[in-house]
Amino acid sequence: MNRLTQFAAVVALTLAAVPFVPRGWADDKPTSAVIGTEGAYAPWNFTDAGGKPVGFEMDLATDLCGRMKIKCSFVLQDFDGLIPALQVGKFDVIMAAMFITDKRLEVINFTRPYAIDPSGFAVAKDSPLAKAGLTGTLDLGDAATTGPVIDKMKALLKGKTIGVQAATKHLDFVKQNFADVATIREYKTTQEHDLDLAAGRLDAIFAQRTTLAATLAKPEFSAYAVAGPGFVKGVFGRGTGAGIRKKDEALLAMFNDAIGAAIADGTIKKLSIQWLKSDVTPP
Amino acid sequence: MIDLDFMAEAFRRLIQGVPLTLELAALSVSLGLAIALVCAMALHYGHRGLTWPIRAYVTAFRGTPLLVQIFFTYYGLGQFRPELQALGLWGFFREPFWCAILALTLNTGAYGTEIIRGALQSVPYGQIEAARACGMTRWLVYRRILLPIALRLALPSYGNEIILMVKGTSLTSIITLLEVTSIAQQLTSETFRAIEVFVCAGAIYLAMNFVVTRIIGSIEYRLSAHLRAAPDLVALPAGGGSA
Prior knowledge:
- The complex is a heterodimer.
- Chain A is of the alpha/beta class.
- Chain A has 2 domains: about 15-115 and about 240-275, Periplasmic binding protein-like II (D-Maltodextrin-Binding Protein, domain 2, 3-Layer(aba) Sandwich); about 120-235, 3-Layer(aba) Sandwich (D-Maltodextrin-Binding Protein, domain 2).
- Chain A has helices spanning about 5-15, 55-70, 80-85, 100-105, 130, 145-155, 170-180, 190-200, 210-215, 250-265, 265-275, and strands at about 30-35, 40, 45, 55, 70-75, 95, 110, 120-125, 135-140, 160-165, 185, 205-210, 225-230, 245.
- Chain A has a 6-stranded mixed sheet with strand order 9-13-8-12-10-11, sandwiched between helices. A 5-stranded mixed sheet of chain A has the order 5-1-6-14-7. Chain A has a 3-stranded antiparallel sheet with strand order 2-3-4, covered by helices on one side.
- Helix content of chain B is about 80%, strand content about 0%.
- The model of chain B has no long low-confidence stretch (mean pLDDT about 90).
- Classes of the chains: A alpha/beta, B mainly alpha.
- Chains A and B meet through helix 3, strand 11 and helix 8 of A and helix 10 of B.
């Protein structure tokens, strides 16, 4: 064998060894699953002092895996890299407060939703938006009702700087509706836009109501409050579900059954009140 | 599998980040060079009251990751808003761009200090002695002998440092600056096509650094004329010159 073929053989072997297809199951019945999450989205998924992932979704995942009788483990990954990482097989399931949207459904499958949680703004208590007294929950599919409210909010957010997490539907929503009146800054994690809100670099942040509530409960945020209506559907899709590769149909069916059972016996309600302080059980 | 139309589109989007990337790199490299020159000369001068703080600065900034330094200047100092406002510095620290410039400048300044200090020390002592013997003052020795020779000696490693800074600007994506890397991350999250996007982004950095290496190369060429044989002498026949 000459040098070149030796080299080619080494390269080929190395490439063949890259583990693109994960773990202990073929396409019949899975016996284990690696769950990818962000670990920076309290109280949905975050890490405790020891770096272990905890939160609503971790407890839910543990419950679901118990129902399915499979072994589950967790992997942390930045939110904007979750879908690419799922596709190349770094893990088998995404549970990271990810909305089920048409765009994402083009590349991966989602289970039925395990939570529906409106999204909204948090601003300083003395800002125009907070004083406007806009409340309630708006269905973005219903443009006739939401249009005038968004126009009103546009006027209140004129010239402000809004912080949003990158690669999220929140960013899409804020860009679509407020890009012409406000400056939009993109952050890797919600914690970072929280810090910048407290530092006074931002006038508003836009995120899920439950995460905003968790942030605003901290003492540094006593001067801030949730403001304006909560938004659901439309760009935010059909609620929050677990992402699974298209070819893993057996795993998808198992997760759907387990989520159905967890909704039916009130487990999701219990965990959601425990972690998120409100009931996000989908109807 | 690779879609050329999409790559062209990705390339067009990514190119929009180039001005910011170049601005960050150019500004921090030039400010960093100024810091490096001053610090290296102070170290070379060797007064204790000067060398200790400079050594501490260099050790701190060479010994910690640039990512940590960027996080620290932006999010860390952001927590001292009332104090910074009292000092009138908040206008500076409020902007991610200036925080990035500060972190990048101090980082490259620390590395540059070491590069130039090393170069100053490698200037042959005979040259300095000769200059002194001619009656040059300390400052004149710096201006005519030490600095020109040292900068020539420092150039290859300084070129390295500039390239590292061009690539280092990619870390500023974490403080919301929309330079090439953060646009690449946006595109990946919009399209889920990481390969095409990052190949394009990589090509853009490669092109920028290619230009940087060519510029450094040409400066090096011009500064080393005395090390090359004069062209007309090369043509002389061996043992010639009988007339």
